[in-house]
Amino acid sequence: MPTYVTYRWKEKIDPALIKPIKTYVTFLGQLERAPHDGLPGFPDELVESITENSKPQGLSLEGGFKEFLQHTQKAGLTSKRGTSSILKLLESMEDRDVTIKLSPRFIRKLPEEESRKFYTDKFKALATEKGLSKKANLSDKDFLDYFSVVYSLFIRYVSLEFEGDPIVGKKSDYLLRSSALATVFSSLLSSYSQIANQQTLAELTANFSKGDDKSLFKAITIDKSLLYNMAAKKRIVQAQLSGDKKFFSKLGKAISDDPLRRVGQHGKTYTVLSLFWYTGLYKLTAPELHAFLKSCGLVLPSLEGGAFYKFLDRHIKPIFK
Questions:
Q1: Which has more confidence, 81 or 251?
Q2: Cα–Cα dist 162/24, whole Å
Q3: d(CA 316, CA 319)
């Protein structure tokens, strides 16, 4: 049996990155059906809250980090100044000098000395490198390595209030009443689409808005609420008026289908990797990644025998090409 050096993941990524991922895994575990078939299992009170506060165009179109940060600010989990600062960090991504100047205020907030040292060392190294092209993207390795440090720091900072003890009282009540949960669920649905289709729901929605029925069926398989999207409703009316039975047969299959039906017990792992890959997980060797994910409480394909390698090559790495 081969011997793997697995502890080195702590040298390549924030050693405390395990905390927000564990929190997220716990959240997924509370949605008992989600890891197995891509359908949520929210308690009735949360279903009612999300339904009342969601937008009519589809749960997957609820918004992103900015909207979620605004919700956490209103709940009292972050200050207005803190929210403004983290948004500035994201907006400065293509100007490395600005990002490096902003980073210390976030690093200081981290409770773990090893995490503070990790980011301090990374940003010091970045400060000595040549400037990054403003047109750089994630296919550029230098930009990707830079982006991963900033993105990882962002994840750690915004998740600090969610790590450890559960949020209770008025803060919890606000999050339940607001559309914050719909925003979180939107992110979850987006990861399902990347796994199942190697396309985001935003891309599929844009395609079916131009008349691509295949994109419509793929999107509906992931987000059933997209039936209320204006472009989808228009296409359904057209099909009904023209007597297009073939269209409705395919639509019915998309509605009843489950996006992650082939994933089984590894649904959580798919979702975690799709959302956290760019925090630096892509830097880890397969044994290192396996050890890290196992520490997060995930059930994984076996490393011995090559099952985990095949899992990554077939289902994860193609998403990020």
A1: 251
A2: 9
A3: 6
Task: Report the length, in residues, of the chain.
Answer: 321
The pLDDT value given to residue 279: 94
- Amino acid occupying residue 155: I
The C-alpha atoms of residue 227 and residue 116 are separated, in whole angstroms, by 46
* Helix residue spans in the chain (DSSP H): 9-12, 18-30, 34-37, 44-53, 65-74, 80-91, 96-107, 113-128, 141-159, 170-177, 180-197, 201-209, 213-222, 230-242, 245-256, 267-276, 286-295, 307-311
Q: Which residues contact 2 (CB under 8 A, 6 or more apart)?
A: 304
- Return the DSSP state at 56: T
Q: Please give the pLDDT value at position 165.
A: 55
Amino acid identity of 145? D
Query: What pLDDT score was predicted for residue 60?
Result: 62
Q: Token match 């992931």: residue?
A: 222
Whether residue 166 has pLDDT greater than 60: no
Question: Is residue 102 within 8 Å of 116, Cβ to Cβ?
Answer: no
pTM over 0.85: no
User: What does the block give as tokens for 151?
Assistant: 């993105």
- Calculate the alpha carbon distances from 191 to 144, 200, 223 in Å: 19, 8, 11
Predicted local confidence at residue 264, as pLDDT: 58
Residue with tokens 């295949």: 214
Mean pLDDT (the chain, rounded): 79
Q: Which residue is associated with the tokens 């689409």?
A: 193
Cα→Cα distances 292→150, 185, 280, Å: 20, 25, 12
Residue 168's pLDDT band (boundaries 50, 70, 90)? very low
| pLDDT higher than 90, residue 128 | no
Separation CA 161–CA 146 (nearest Å): 25
By C-alpha distance, which of 222, 229, 228 is closest to 197? 222
Cα-based angle 299, 302, 306 (whole degrees, multiple of 5): 145
Residue 28: partners with Cβ closer than 8 Å, 6 or more residues away: 34, 35, 268, 271, 272
The gap between the terminal CA atoms of the chain, to the nearest Å, is 32
Q: What would the two tokens of residue 38 be?
A: 């891509």
